[in-house]
Amino acid sequence: MRTPIPRLTLAPALWLTLALALPVTAVGADPEEASRVKVIQETLPAVVKIQGTPTYAGGEDAVWGSGFFYTNARIITNYHVVDGLENLTVTLYDGRSFPAETYAVDRGIDLAILEVHGAGAPAVLKFATETGVFAGQTAIVLGSPFGKRNLVSVGVIAGSGPFDYVGQLGEDDVGIEIPEIYYTDARVEPGNSGGPLLNGQGLVVGVIDAVLGGASGIGGLGIAIPAYLVVQSIHDLERYGVPQRGWLGAVLVDLTDLDPLILHLAGLESTRGAMVEQVLPGSPAEDAGLRGARRDRYGKLVELGDVIVSIEGRPVGNRYDVIRELARRRPGNEVELALWRNGRRITVTVRLKARR
Known about the structure:
Layout lengths: L15 E2 L13 H13 L3 E8 L8 E7 L4 E4 L1 H4 L2 E7 L5 E10 L4 E6 L21 E6 L7 E11 L19 E4 L11 E3 L5 E9 L8 E6 H14 L5 E2 L2 E5 L5 H6 L8 E6 L4 H4 L6 E2 L5 E3 L3 E5 L2 E2 L3 H9 L6 E8 L2 E8 L1 E2 L2
Antiparallel strand pairs: 1-9, 2-3, 2-5, 3-4, 4-7, 5-6, 6-7, 8-9, 8-11, 9-10, 10-13, 11-12, 12-13, 14-23, 15-16, 16-19, 17-18, 19-20, 19-21, 21-22
């Protein structure tokens, strides 16, 4: 798992390792256990170990993560798993390895699609059609923790919430458009990134992204990208080659990062909102007439840019709120932004485009 979350030590074995050859009847008469083992036996062959060598100087000899087939020749994984890697290979359940290449990426929600050469999928996973999960729902994690293939952990969905951990998956813009994540207490470790989070029926409800606060299952929590976001991203990447979420095209700065005196002089008594630092050429922000900040040659702020305080009447707290709220929409959608400009509140309408 290529995440900047601190490296974890191997705790006492909590992993449930299952061989496909084991008959379901061998696990005993417990119907719930037999059902779970059957689901795992049917889905585990779709999961792969992903490996590559870093292109940057001083990298490790090999870096690995997880992924799974969603078609006969294509695999979904995390963008941060394959970012900066070359000589990609995927290792199947039976140990055979095949070359792969990156087909498309979606940095905004930390996803990548790989195309595998020379092998058909032993199995293909299906996505759940529901757009949410419930706390207490069965959670099954499949993948290659610590590079060890074909391992399984079982727990529950712990809940869901906003993604407040931008910057922990690589560069600052990786994962920046994830509006919410799912938490699980099923064991997640380095190497699980990109693997599936399944429900009790063996359907994909999320893609494992990272682990927070230490090893999940013993105090930490695994986090996953919701399946509905993954499905939308796959559709966009396969049809257009790039994500199709709403994009403003402005560099934003949190008000909490600015001098309070400047905010006070501009008539702003709250630090909730996001200032437009720079408007990108040809962007929706430029088309709508948004104004960026002005700084002197030493980089000191001498004039505030427009401050976005709400979107469609919904207050925003910081730049991430702005990015995620607009990313919920599609290119071509129009949104109304409330701005603070020259000591007064105004509104502008922006027609969104796809992120470049």
